[in-house]
Design goal:
The chain is of the alpha/beta class and 230 residues long. The chain has a single domain, classed as Aldolase class I (TIM Barrel), CATH 3.20.20.70. Helices cover 33% and strands 19% of the residues. The strands form two sheets. Strands 7-6-5-4-3-2-1-8 form an eight-stranded parallel β-sheet. The protein has a two-stranded antiparallel ribbon with strand order 9-10. It is globular, with a radius of gyration of 16 Å.
């Protein structure tokens, strides 16, 4: 049975419980297998050269099997990517979702959906309540909004910095689109974060690593186990 979520299944994504889990920044085949075996719902790959988790589409394509593709949603994370950067991913991997982590406007989301037919995850940094105004800008063009902490003032990456925002920002908010919580999550603080935000989808990268870009298979299993038990 094909258990993957599709880009147009937004209502289904919103309704599924327990938590949907995305493990991001996967950079080798054993980690991808561990993510799938642990029961995660999304596997994320970073195409951003400055990131210690950067991978090329040809490498990721070599890790995939038909069975694995049936079990998990594949997400490619990009930052203001051109079509020339995206096309190798759709030729080699054909991801289920693109996660846009840059300054892409709504028109770019619509262009990507029309050209590639994939689901769209749009990352939005949250500093305070005012930043939630961007929700209405992107709600109609993204299948999932991803709320993350803003990068550090100097030298930070667009994501994967191990920082979290004030979760109280999301407390009691009615978000008019499916959304995912990201930023500084770990197995230790996951329950607190979910209780504060009422998130139904969570995203983790550095929180399941033992070094930047180096995933701990034990931490992955623990994070997914806790998430699925909440």
């Amino acid at each position: 049975m094909d258990s993957r979520l599709r880009g147009n299944d937004s209502n289904l994504i919103r309704a599924i419980m327990p938590l949907n889990v995305k493990i991001c920044g996967i950079s080798d085949a054993p980690t991808l297998k561990a993510v799938r075996d642990a029961g995660a719902d999304f596997a994320g790959f970073i195409d951003f050269p400055r990131s210690p988790r950067h991978v090329l589409p040809q490498r990721v394509a070599g890790w995939l099997s038909p069975e694995l593709r049936e079990d998990i949603n594949l997400v490619v994370v990009t930052v203001d990517a051109s079509d020339a950067m995206l096309e190798p991913w759709f030729h080699s991997v054909n991801p289920d979702f693109l996660q846009l982590h840059g300054d892409e406007p709504p028109e770019r989301l619509r262009e990507i959906r029309k050209k590639y037919g994939c689901g769209i995850i749009k990352a939005l940094p949250l500093r305070d309540l005012k930043d939630l105004e961007d929700v209405t800008v992107f709600a109609n063009d993204a299948d999932i909004l991803l709320f993350d902490a803003p990068p550090p003032a100097e030298g930070g990456l667009p994501g994967g910095n191990g920082l979290h925002f004030d979760w109280r920002i999301l407390g009691g908010c009615d978000i008019p689109a499916p959304w995912m919580l990201s930023g500084g999550l770990t197995a230790t603080n996951l329950a607190e974060a979910v209780a504060a935000t009422k998130a139904t989808m969570v995203d983790v990268s550095s929180g399941v690593e033992f070094a930047p870009g180096r995933k701990s298979l034990e931490k992955i299993r623990e994070f997914v186990r806790i998430a699925k038990g909440l």
